[in-house]
Amino acid sequence: MATIVTRAGKGSPLTNNEVDQNFINLNTAKLEGTVAIASGGTGQITQQLAINALAGATTSGQYLRGNGTNVVMSSIQAADVPTLNQNTTGSAATLATGRTIGMTGDVTWTSGSFNGSANVTGTSTLANTAVTAGSYTSANITVDSKGRITAASNGSGGGITMGKAIAAAIVFG
């Protein structure tokens, strides 16, 4: 521990060399032990113990809060919590602006306006292909990778003819 020269009572003032040496000694000295709260310290040896000592009595659910003059232990107040969109009336809030839900592609669909207050439904429409609705005879058809008929036309036959049908009946008999 460094030695600090002082003058008790009304003695002579410190010399310049003594003041200079005191500053040197203070710069190189290490504070040892604890400093009581009454002397400007915390009276503790760790950071957490110091915080606990300075906070005073603690209760679960409280936190350090500035009251405009001092920092004190306090319970959380409603004013401490930021106000978010609290437009609720005992159930989930609705969207401020209604939206629609839609699909495009091979199926088109658009819902009614949706704001979260109720279910919505819509009617879907399957996209047309190049095929004309109707019946086809001995049809020539084209099917795409999604299983849709994309082309159809009447064929020219090519199935079993009357003569071949009689021959087949005789053979298979």
Structure notes:
Helices cover 19% and strands 16% of the residues. The protein folds into three domains: 1-59, no CATH class; 99-126, no CATH class; 129-173, no CATH class. With 173 residues, the protein is of the alpha+beta class. The N and C termini lie far apart (125 Å). Strand 3 and strand 4 (107-110) form a beta hairpin.
Number of strands: 7
- For the record, the count of structural domains works out to 3
Provide the helix percentage: 10-25%
Taken in chain order, the helices and strands follow as HHEEEEEEEH
For the biggest sheet, the summary is: 3 strands, antiparallel
Number of helices: 3
The class by helix and strand makeup works out as alpha+beta
Task: Give average pLDDT, whole number.
Answer: 77
Strand order of the biggest β-sheet: 3-4-5
Question: What keywords describe this structure?
Answer:
two-stranded antiparallel sheet; alpha+beta; single chain; 173 residues; 3 domains
What's the topology here?
Elements: H1 16-28, H2 47-55, E1 62-66, E2 71-75, E3 102-103, E4 107-110, E5 125-126, E6 140-143, E7 149-153, H3 162-172
Antiparallel strand pairs: 1-2, 3-4, 4-5, 6-7
What's the gist of this structure?
By secondary structure, this protein is α+β, with helices and mostly antiparallel strands. It has three helices and seven strands.
